[in-house]
Design a protein that fits this description.
By secondary structure, the chain is mainly α. Helix content is 83%, strand content 0%.
Length: 126
C-alpha cells in the first residue's frame, strides 16, 4: 500500500530494513551517521522550500538516528562522555528546529557528522 501511495518512501524504508538486517555493530554506527547526514540535507532543502511536512519527517529521522547513536555509545570508552555531550547538544538543536530552523547551525552539524563518519570509516580500515 505504501509503495503505491509514496514510492520514494517505500523504497527508502525497504533499503533501511535491508541494511539493518545485515549490519554488524560498526556498520550500524556508520548507517546511523550516514542516515543523519542525509536527513540533515533533506532538512535544509525542506526548510528552503517551506515544506513543513518534509521538515517534520527529516527532523524525526534525525532525532531517531541521534537517539540510536546515543544508545550505542560504549559507556566505558574514552570518548563516551564527549560523544554523549555532543549528541545531546545536536539533539537539542534539532528539537529547537521544530519551531525555528537555523540553517547555518544545521549545515555546521551536517559537516561535523560527515567528519565523524569519515573518521570512523578511516579507523575501521586502519
Amino acid at each position: 500500500m505504501l509503495a503505491r501511495a509514496q514510492p520514494g518512501e517505500a523504497y527508502r524504508q525497504s533499503n533501511f530494513d535491508a541494511r539493518l538486517m545485515v549490519s554488524e555493530r560498526d556498520d550500524l554506527v556508520l548507517f546511523c551517521l550516514d542516515d543523519l547526514v542525509e536527513n540533515l540535507g533533506v532538512l535544509e532543502i525542506a526548510e528552503a522550500r517551506g515544506d513543513r511536512a518534509a521538515r517534520s519527517r527529516s527532523l524525526t529521522r534525525c532525532v531517531t538516528a541521534l537517539t540510536a547513536l546515543e544508545i550505542g555509545i560504549d559507556r566505558e570508552a574514552e570518548m563516551a562522555s564527549s560523544l554523549m555531550q555532543f549528541y545531546g547538544a545536536a539533539k537539542g538543536l534539532l528539537l529547537d528546529s521544530v519551531r525555528n530552523v537555523d540553517l547555518e547551525k544545521i549545515a555546521q552539524l551536517r559537516a561535523d557528522m560527515r567528519e565523524i563518519a569519515n573518521a570512523f570509516r578511516a579507523a575501521r580500515i586502519a
